[in-house]
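User: Thanks for the earlier help. One more: MFS transporter. Can you show the sequence and predicted structure together?

Assistant: Of course, both are below.
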Amino acid sequence: MTVIALDTSSETTARRLAVFALALGGFGTGTAEFASMGLLPEIASGFGISEPAAGHAISAYALGVVVGAPVLTALSARVPRKTLLVALMTVFTVGNLATALAPSYALPVVARFICGLPHGAFFGVAALVAAHVMGPGQQAKAVANVMAGQTVATVVGVPVASWLGQTLGWRCAFALVVAVGVATLAAIWRWMPDLRSMQITSVLTELGALTRVQVWLALVVGMVGFGGMFAVYTYISTTLTDVAGLPRTFVPVALVVFGLGMVVGNLVGGQLAYRSVMRALYLSMGAQAVVLAIFVVASHRTYTALPVLFLIGATSAAFTPALQTRLMDVAADARTLAGALTHCALNIGNAAGAWLGGLVIAAGYGYTAPAAVGAMLATASLIVLTASVFVPD
């Protein structure tokens, strides 16, 4: 009996370390993605350009995810999962190194595109690997565990990167991401099993997901819904300083508040998705529509802006496990691509939200206008979600 207990304990530890390696990768990608938004004023100032122009680097990252998620996932369908995870994280790390060393603005835009290419594929593979490692019936929780790395990044990685960017220059923030990328590679190499028992699909099987109407509807729900949050978050630094009156040095603290909301939202969203995926989607996106509308008014005072910012983070993070589980459910055999497409949708929302938020700001409506746009996008995603209920599989 003692031997069995020791074996079980050892196996459990090995599983946790494997999932931790995947979550660490999520921490790195989350830090890279969100830190660039918090450092938008510093990046713009460093290259002598406007904030909306600097936002093109954010859009380039999102475009990289949109292109890379389906293409890399499909083309790598027969590559061993551990080898693929190492390759994807290597590209991500090298891309961030190029960003940190870029001498002119054109190169960071290209480098951010390269960084985005492996993002969706990594999360798609990581979600399935985590589910495989954790065992049957743990799909929603496995997805939440992998996404936990990204949400923790908003509490620790993004504020630290923001602080580094403000005090030592924005390039130091991306140097931090490079260090996390190297640590992730070491963790995957050391702790991830060979995964030879995982099912290997084919290019045609994975691309078959794109022939399913429910997959496209779920993607639209994600694209529109995530766009609401990113319309606000892309310009959150200036909103908090110029509208709410928060001192610039306290912006990292505000990012911690947002990150704590994401951590709580991810935990709650994972539990909600475990019980009912559709209910979790309705609750999270409905709540986000409400809090984004409230932020239009709440953003004028620091003591009201920060609590609502926490809720924006919570509702957006609660939405992610449910959407990824929904996509994996409706994609049949193409579950790796489905997992990757979640982040494709997220980053289309990223690019669209940043663009729409920039449009209303440039039109002279001020930095509260993106929240109004976000509330409308969240409402539109609910309409699409409701329509999907009446569409046959």
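User: Great, one quick takeaway?

Assistant: The radius of gyration is 20 Å.
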